[in-house]
Amino acid sequence: MVFLDESGFLVIPHVHRTWAPRGRTPLVRHSYRRDRVSAISAITVSPRRRRLGLCFQLFPKNIKGEEVLGFIRNLLRQLRGPVDLLWDGSPIHRRRLVQDFLHAHPRIRTHRFPAYAPELNPDEFVWTRAKARLANSAPRDLDELGNRVCKTILRIQKSDALLRSCINEADLPWSW
Fold first, then answer.
1. pLDDT tens figures, 144-155
2. CATH topology assigned to domain 2-7+32-169
C-alpha cells in the first residue's frame, strides 16, 4: 500500500506560534521572494511484514505530470508485487501521460481519496510535521531551503515512530 501526496515549501517563512519572553515578540527577518521547493512523497506500508517506508523527491519548480510519472517509476523499482496507490484527485494525477502509464502497468491499482478529505491521507502528516519543524526559520535562498527540507524529511524517513504517528493521525478506519 502506498499513500502519495505533493506539497510546496516557500522561501518566505512559515510563521508558527512560539514561546518568547513577555513583551518581546520574536521577529523573523527575510527578503520577500516567491521561490519554492516542490516535494512529492509516498508512505509505503507492507501489511504482511508490518514495515513502513518513506520515499520522497524534491524539485525546484512546480510538480507536473512528468515528475509524478518519474516518481511512480522509481517507486515501482523499489516495491515488489501488486501496489495499491492511494492519492487525492489532483489534476496532475489525472494527466493523460500518468493515466496511460497506470493502464500499461496492471500491478498498480489506484484509489482516490474523497474530495476535500486530506485528513485521510497519512502522507499529509509528513508535510504537517516537516512544515512545523521548519516554522519560524528564514532561509537565505532556494538552496538553503532545499537542504533544510531534505534534512527534515530524512529525519521523518529514519524514524519509525514518526512514520507510525503519521499513519495513526490519519482518519483511516484502521490503525497501525
1. 889 999 999 999
2. Nucleotidyltransferase; domain 5 (3.30.420)
